[in-house]
Amino acid sequence: MTQTFQLGPLVLSLPLLLAAAAFLLASFAGRRLGKDRGAEVERHLMWMLLLGLLAARLAFVVQFRDAYLKSPLGILDIRDGGWHVAVGLGVAFAYVGVVLARRAALRKPLAAALGVGAGLWLAGALVLSANAPGDVRMPKLALPSMDGTTVALSTYEGRPTVVNLWATWCPPCQREMPVLHAAQLARPDVHFVFLNQGESPQKVAAYLRKSGLALRNVLLDGRSEVGAELGHRALPTTLFFDARGRLVDTRVGELSEASLAERLSSLAAAAPKQ
Question: In the structure, how many helices (H) and strands (E) does the chain have?
């Protein structure tokens, strides 16, 4: 079971959906429990959420400030998935702590609402964890390259490998491609493999000529076999494998320079100790 839910072209993260459901349930419980006390629990829950999200984004931007200084407007583009979760949770809980300490009337309904939401989130997280894929490995497939030779994906084992599923018709694929190309040039210790999904070599070659990107390791997955085997149909999807060929991270959606740097750091941390 993958950690995403696909509805037509729309792909949603199951953990994100779970968090949203938990927050909505907490808001509903807070409204019911605070009604008799005249306590505005929902307002404080919303402030907790907004402050937590703002802190999580700002902490991530500060951590990868060099990347965002090159393109400051990228700070506002939260589609890259760049969040510092620990900082966001810390700020959210700090806000709740201050409210609970200062507003006696809010203590019981707010604490109860948070308990209900946390209970749903914990139960859902346990279900997702129990159904999460186990030890996922690099698919044992061989695919044609742009020069007509056949390349087995297993040949990339022995070094951390980033596998990008993309297509020329996909706008977010096009936007993130220069970021991946720059990383391929800057990180010779990592394999970057570009698996085009379902298109002809002529179309791929035309796109690469037009873009001016001299990508290495461009393979043609004409039947989208890799995505089907790993349960990922959405584009773009980027898969991060360690040197032993184990899948350690997945990003469904567009990558920025900062969010790619974060995942490359995690990939390096997952490398087996010598």
Answer: 9, 9
Question: What are the residues whose beta carbons fall under 8 Å from the beta carbon of 256, sequence distance 6 or more?
Answer: 67, 74, 77, 80, 82, 176, 179
Domains of the chain: 4-130 (no CATH), 142-269 (3.40.30.10)
Through-space distance between the first and last CA atoms of the chain, rounded to whole angstroms:
32
pTM: 0.86
Instruction: Provide the edge-to-edge strand list for the sheet that holds 218-221.
Output: 218-221, 191-197, 161-166, 237-241, 247-252
- Helices of type H across 103-241: 104-130, 171-186, 201-211, 225-230
* CB within 8 Å of 30: residues ≥ 6 apart: 41, 42, 44, 45, 109, 110, 112, 113
pLDDT digits (tens, 9 = 90+) for 21-50: 999 999 999 888 877 666 788 899 999 999
What is the rounded distance in angstroms from the CA atom of residue 143 to the CA atom of residue 68? Answer: 36
| Cα–Cα distance for residue pair 187/264, rounded to 1 Å | 10
pLDDT in tens, 139-166: 999 999 998 899 999 999 999 999 999 9
**What would the pLDDT profile of 187-230 be if each residue is shown by its tens digit?**
999 999 999 999 999 999 999 999 999 999 999 999 999 988 88
Torsions phi, psi for 272 (to 5 deg): -65, 140
Q: Which residue, 241, 193, 245, is CA-closest to 216?
A: 193
